[in-house]
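Hi team,

Below is the intake form for sn-1-specific diacylglycerol lipase from Leishmania orientalis. Please confirm the fields before the structure is written into the shared record.

FORM ID: S-0412
PROTEIN: sn-1-specific diacylglycerol lipase
ORGANISM: Leishmania orientalis
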Amino acid sequence: MPSLVWFGRSWRVGTDDFVFTSALQAMLLAGSAFLIACQVNLSRLNYLDDCDTASVAWGRCMMGLLCTNIISAVLFVCTAAFSLHGGVFEVSKRKAVPVMLYINTACIAAIFVLACIAAKQAIFEAETTYCPRASTVHVLRGTVVADFSVFALYVALFIIAFDPRGRRVHHHGNDNASVWWKRFCIFCCRFGKRSQMEEAYTDLAHVFATAFRGFDIVPSDIAAGALLLHGYQCRSRELLSRMVDYGPNPQGHPERLSSQAVPAQRLTPEQRAWAHELQQYSRFFVAAYGWLLFEFQHLGSGLARLCYFDPCMCCRDHPGDHIGQGCFCDVTALLHEARLPEEDLLLTSWDNNVFKPVHYVAYDRSSDAVIIAIRGSMSIEDCVTDLAALPVAVELRDTPPDVPASEYYAHGGMVRCAYNVLDNLSEHGILRQLLCGRFAGKKLVLLGHSLGAGVALILSAMLWSDHTVLRGRLRCLAYAPPGGTVSKALMEYQKSFVAAACMGYDMVPRLAQHTFDSFREAIFDVLAASNMNKNMIFMNVLRTGEIAKSFHPSTSANLQGRRSAESALFRESLLHTPSMPLGETQKLYNCSLMIHFIKAVDVCTRTCSVLGCRGYNEEVFIPVARDFEAVQMLLASPTMLTDHFPDRFFRVMQRSMELLDRGELDRFYTDDISGVAPYLQEAPMHYVEHTPTTPTEINSLLTCGALV
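The structure came back. Fields below:
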């Protein structure tokens, strides 16, 4: 970082990205030179042992390869050594790397030419036939093949690193949006050129242009920065865990404290009621994923199980309206996971497209409620919808007079999804039955996971606004909703009938444009604060916490003074990117009440049978009530993706609520967490230049989610 400038253009690599590749090529060249050296005999006219009658020209060609390979191997070692100098932002310490690349390229070209000549003489002039020993022939041929491989590897690496727009500098946000638009058109060409897709590409281009803003970065910089930030946050969580004392395990089993463990305040009766309602209806969001998730959960035996449940599912009539179903595997999996009789499944729509999510409507007899469940992301079309995040206005009635209508906006892609689902409900008569038909007066529950949760949040606000008869019986349950879904005004508008749940370090409920901006800036900060070379960061991937001690406020004083002048200057330049947006972006949030399931401990247990004893770890999660401010920070963690998986989330929620009802989680709660504030002085989750000392600074850390 910044990107390598070579041959008058920028590339997708930095000057510190040539350590491993140069070392690999040096080893290949050294191996090739060793093979040739084993066959060299300087006392012979053609310099080759066991090839007395071979031509002198071929012998000289092989000697040329030997010398060039040795020289090139040394040069590649020097390139790797120069690439190891300095921190990520200290480019001047690696100014010799571009020069070395020019020399290396010339050497590789010479090796390719000599290898071509040697191959021509060996094949067309049959020089190898003058070597009586087969081992000698194989060694010489292997040498030529190895040199061709080195050339192919060198070219392939630069093809990967090539940036077709490296000669252009984009100084305006519209230029970056145009670049991203063309990239999405190429990547998603299979969707065709319908107007709806053109609109989606435009939204995606603006979102990505705003997120990356033409920063002079390369992918490996982001990876190294994420590792450093993970170590930094691990160090902070380790400090926070010092104040956690859950007491001994009641059964006497040994326990290991989780990195998520923090002092947790006891749930209020209202929060506990919401948590139970989220658990009660959680099976419906799992059912929306159909047979693919069912197959994943049962390790390849899912389809066989579905055939056992309903052998005639493909060839019989099914009650209700089913759109986009062929063999009815999805419907069978849905009925099994939701534990519903088939006559209570009113409508399913499996016709998945951009802005058209999969959803279904069912009647749950156990709670006397109508369920509208919307599936989360499970296709490329859903991912396009997720990323089409430009805010659009949402028209609502009965809004507070002191809040302007322009403050009610939401995720553009999800708003379009909500309108499509609403149209489908109206078209099939479901909405009429809810208002004045069979289900008038019944409880209405809108729910979904991930993308489906965001759509459910917006759709519930529309129904609440347009149909006053639903207001006393409407509930919206959002499972792991995206962090950038609704505006703060819209979130306040629907807080009386909405609750959400998430788990662990799940990044989706934390992900919004402003949180991504904060995460990106945090990565830049730790890269500037660390003097360690990027390659050393990668080689210490398992001990990032130890690396972070060198610039963490709890273990290092005068952090600003430790930065090199070049790192500080480059970091300052990133704050003034030419394509920075002129105004503040519209912020989006998810839900005012979040039931967050955090892992408290790992319980180590052993079970014994006639076959022997076996030990395993049980993860213990506890539900904690958070507001939207507590999930306004992305946390770098290996589980930030796996904590979002719907099947894992469902199992954790069921188990945690079961333990909560039995009173086995009481020891993890406290009635007062005010004593946590002093620990935040030395345990921030994002990089700071100094230890916060004032109450304002401490409160800002509390509200930005340092406890989560």
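SUMMARY LINE: The mean pLDDT is 82.

Thanks, M.
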